[in-house]
Design a protein that fits this description.
Layout (H helix, E strand, L loop, with lengths): L1 E5 L9 H4 L5 E6 L12 H12 L4 E6 L5 H5 L4 H16 L5 E4 L11 E5 L5 E5 L1 H4 L18 H10 L5 H22 L2 E4 L18 H10 L5 E6 H6 L5 H10 L3 E6 L2 E3 L6 E3 L11 H10 L5 E4 L17 H21 L1
Parallel strand pairs: 1-2, 1-12, 2-3, 3-4, 4-7, 7-8, 8-9, 9-12
Antiparallel strand pairs: 5-6, 6-11, 10-11
Helix pairs in contact: 4-7, 10-11, 11-12
Length: 347
């Protein structure tokens, strides 16, 4: 296991000097955030990040994420153009020590929350998805937390309309078309692709979601058997549906060597309608027995990358909701302890 930390580049208020002080932190997970989706990543931008990280003895081996252009998901006539660019970016990243790429195949919204500042009983705030608020949203006049600056209302409307005839099977077939061309390049470069589960794992605004269940992942791995085709085990995303057995999923795919990256976070389900709030990483804080889950990873000799996923905003910290320093640092320390305990118990 290699412990990592999500870092949003040079404009991130969290400094590399702070990240390096978290025990057992081997590196960061980041991306090039100012290059439009579907364009080549400039070599000098990758070099500048690597150069800065070396000052703090931190590695960059995981990219999160190298986004997939919507025209690839849609199966548009120019998708081969965007796939070619994606493959060129993979080859560039391989020259700079990248071993894993986290990506998703979610149409339009790669995550959805109805609030970024859910008030918890302990006084902290966190991300939450409340189904009662979601069903009140008008997709033709959307104002979403964290998304208001992503598209204009007209752009969002047009994009949603373009998916009107895309079924689950169509989207899945477009994913396979993409991976059929990408995985051979990954094999050549020895880079693993780690698809992220749908977040949350249900259809959103009539948009199809195809990576929401254990059977979805089995179908994907059967279609593209090469082990470079793997997954990001996002415990919060998968558990949010209520229909998933996160321990069975972890057991099955860690045993098969399909889990290349793990986003470890806890959530608290709020009823049976898909509502949830994110919470502290501690097992007793939510609905995931984190120690049981980590024991499964250790038992199956998981050697991939881990990061503490979304944290609460605590101790009056201000910043990017879900990505503050304090609670994620606490989460990393807690996860380190669980991995150490599991290794000592099992071996």
């Amino acid at each position: 296991m290699k412990m990592t930390f999500r870092w949003y580049g040079f404009n991130d208020p969290i400094k590399l000097s702070q990240i390096r002080q978290i025990p057992n932190m081997t590196g960061v997970v980041t991306a090039i955030y100012d290059v439009p989706v579907g364009e080549l990543w400039p070599v000098d931008k990758v070099e500048s990040i690597q150069k800065e990280l070396k000052k703090y003895n931190l590695a960059l081996e995981v990219i999160e994420s190298l986004p997939v252009h919507e025209n690839i998901k849609l199966g548009a006539s120019d998708r081969d153009h965007y796939i070619d660019i994606y493959c060129k970016n993979i080859r560039t990243l391989s020259k700079y020590g990248i071993k894993c790429i986290c990506y998703n195949f979610m149409p339009v919204f790669d995550w959805l929350r109805t609030t970024l500042n859910y008030k918890n009983k302990d006084g902290s705030t966190s991300l939450a998805f409340l189904y009662s608020d979601y069903i009140e949203l008008d997709k033709n006049n959307l104002h979403l937390p964290g998304w208001d600056e992503s598209y204009t209302q007209e752009q969002l409307h047009d994009l949603l309309e373009s998916y009107s005839n895309i079924t689950h099977d169509t989207l899945f077939n477009n994913l396979i078309y993409f991976l059929d061309r990408v995985i051979p390049v990954c094999k050549e470069c020895d880079i693993n692709m780690a698809i992220h589960p749908d977040d949350p794992p249900l259809d959103i605004f009539q948009l199809p979601r195809i990576m929401s269940t254990m059977d979805d992942f089995k179908r994907l791995f059967k279609a593209i058997p090469d082990l470079h085709n793997g997954m990001t085990l996002c415990t919060g995303s998968l558990t949010a549906g209520g229909h998933n057995d996160i321990y069975k999923i972890t057991e099955t795919f860690s045993h098969e060597g399909r889990i290349h990256f793990a986003h470890l976070r806890n959530i608290k389900l709020l009823g049976n309608d898909g509502s949830f709030t994110e919470c502290a990483h501690l097992s007793s804080s939510g609905d995931i027995d984190m120690y049981m889950l980590i024991k499964i990873l250790v038992k199956n000799k998981f050697k991939g990358y881990v990061r503490p996923d979304h944290g609460r905003m605590i101790w009056n910290e201000s910043g990017n909701p879900g990505y503050g320093l304090y609670d994620r640092a606490l989460g990393a320390a807690y996860l380190n302890g669980l991995f150490e305990a599991a290794k000592k118990e099992l071996y």
